[in-house]
Sequence to fold (235 residues):
Amino acid sequence: MVDLNGKLKLHPAFRSSVAHLGAERSPVLIVDDFLADPAVLVDYAATVADFGAVTDTFYPGIRAPIPQIYTFAVRAFLGGLITGTFSVGEVVKELATFSLVTTRPERLQVQQRLPHFDNTDERQLAVLHYLCDGMGGTSFYRHRATGFETIRPLRLAEYTRAVTAELAANGSPAERYIRGDTDLFECIGTFAATFNRVLVYRSVSLHSADIPAEFSFASNPRTGRLTANTFFFCR
Fold:
């Protein structure tokens, strides 16, 4: 049994930066060399975590619960950076899972072939911790017709109508993961999946996993695209 207590410490080479994307200048916090021993999370995912198919989201793969000590560590280590970068208050709730992309392109639903947003509340933040290396990354997008890079409550109806009309007029997108510019969306930033890198961004941002053509879709946490995904709900 892998025990995470006392094993989640900051890497001595920890460093951070902030990128501002697109016309809306949406911040993305990038942390490299986050944890001193991230392999302990991989070991936990491989030997303890109970992965299952996702039924309540459009995530293209499988997920498993992650111990709460991990979210405590993320809040302790990154709380100040997150508050300063995104101008939010205290975290009032969090949700965290291990995730593995396992859905092959031909099995994707239409919505999974497009960029997505996680929530229309700009106080919800996504914390993406790569526990893999060299497996694409994460890209952010602008919807060409509306110019929207983030989907907030007052934009939701207009965005939904526009995309629905485009799909009706042009047909469903090709059976593949979006990667770069398309007729409907423009890529405004891409971050590589580097082992022990963390990305933090607002859940309102249009984004998608950047999955390369040679991707294996492995379900083994030691060889697949393993990430720790956390949502922070802030005041």
Remarks:
- The domain at 15-234 is CATH 2.60.120 (Jelly Rolls).
